[in-house]
Amino acid sequence: MGFRCGIVGLPNVGKSTIFNAMTSAGIESANYPFCTIEPNVGMVAVRDPRLDKLSALAKTKKEVYAQMEFVDIAGLVAGASKGEGLGNQFLAHIRQVDAIAHVVRCFEDSNIVHVSGNIDPLRDREIINTELMLADMDTVARRIDKTSGRARTGDKASQVQMVTLEKLAKLLDDGKPARLLAVDETNRGLLKELCLLSAKPVLYVANVKEEDILTGNQWVDKLREVAEHEDQAPVVLISGAIEEELSGMNPEERQEFLADMGMEESGLNRLVHAGYKLLHLVNYFTVGVQETRAWTIPEGTAAPQAAGVIHSDFEKGFIRAEVIAYDDYIACGSEAAAKEKGVWRLEGKEYIVKDGDCMNFRFNV
Questions:
Q1: d(CA 286, CA 323)
Q2: What's the pTM value of the predicted model, to 2 decimals?
Q3: Phi, psi of 358 (to 5 degrees)
Q4: Which residues are 236's β-sheet partners?
Q5: Residue 362 · residue 321 · CB < 8 Å
Q6: 140-143: long-range contacts, CB 8 A cutoff, minimum separation 24
Q7: How far does CA 92 lie from the centroid of its chain?
Q8: How distant, in Å, are the alpha carbons of 30, 55, 307, 358 from that of 288?
Q9: Which candidate, 7, 73, 1, places its Cα nearest to that of 243?
Q10: What is the dihedral of CA 349, 352, 353, 358, to 10 degrees?
Q11: How many CB atoms lie within 10 A of CB 229?
Q12: H or E stretch including 124?
């Protein structure tokens, strides 16, 4: 699996159009608020040219790319934290994702009504961020009420938690998201337990017209400036119209279309790459005649845990990992040649898997 990304934004900013194009799910996309009520879910293959090259060398019968799960969540309005619009449903769905792709409208179109009456991506961004933080303030306040009593009785764990909770409360009260709070390993579990909405990693998706996809526009420039000062949140330019066209093309047509547009890759690929970087994810590969496959893991994952992504038995009975770096595999052309040239190696439980490693696991259950 890759990761679960929630697509959020105000009504009529293009969330469902982008989701439609990326997943070819055929969901309803219309010019009225709350077109999306229940979240739509789509799985997207994360195309990786390295896997294609490995597959060609191995003459594999089946290629399996990593998967990214997109969740199209109902449009948010001001007051969602108090139940306005579909606020309660919206907030509950956000808690279930790994990262938030915040779609911001950066184009004019008199045929598509903006819920606030005019285009202002900074205002739109602020509305959603504020609602997430207001919901978190309620969560933290309730936890403080619950924890403070135990802390007063001398409970050491509660006293430690209260320090973090009070820092969180001040941060949110100052209008800053929970993800900006630096915590040690002791309190990381508390943050995970609280499941704060503004603690989710965020990237901004600037939905632009076709002619602005390469250079952006004044609204994109403003969004980038604010995102940089916020917490260096990445901004990805996507044109819903272009992605819709790409979704109906075969690979050859898609590459020709992108070249004509002066684009190296689709908006989907840029979003995936930004998401991987945001969540510090990497891919390793298993290569064979029957199947060549990409597996997604967090950076810094040790070999046994990486093996566990394939099957829990691989982790439980882990003995050794057979490893060939991607560049070495391509240079040698095969596993056998890699062994002959001395770049095939055995690694133990302490080995940290690198992006692009080609691996087999020895295990015993």
A1: 10
A2: 0.81
A3: -100, 125
A4: 205
A5: yes
A6: 140/165, 140/168, 140/169, 140/172, 140/194, 140/196, 141/169, 143/194
A7: 18
A8: 45, 8, 16, 10
A9: 7
A10: -60
A11: 9
A12: helix 121-152
Residues 6+ apart with CB under 8 A from 291: 60, 61, 62, 63, 64
pLDDT tens string, the chain, 365 residues long: the values are 557 888 888 887 888 788 877 776 433 333 333 444 456 788 888 888 999 999 999 999 999 998 888 888 765 555 544 544 444 556 777 888 889 989 999 988 776 656 666 788 899 898 888 888 998 999 999 999 999 999 999 999 899 999 999 999 999 999 999 988 888 877 788 888 898 989 999 999 999 999 999 999 999 999 999 988 877 789 999 998 898 888 888 888 988 999 999 998 888 888 888 888 888 999 999 999 999 999 999 999 999 999 999 999 999 999 999 999 999 999 999 999 999 999 999 999 999 999 999 999 999 97
- In the numeric block, which tokens belong to residue 143? 């936890």
Q: Which residues contact 173 (CB under 8 A, 6 or more apart)?
A: 137
d(CA 319, CA 255): 43
Tokens encoding 291: 């199947």
Length of the chain: 365
Amino acid identity of residue 207, one-letter, is: N
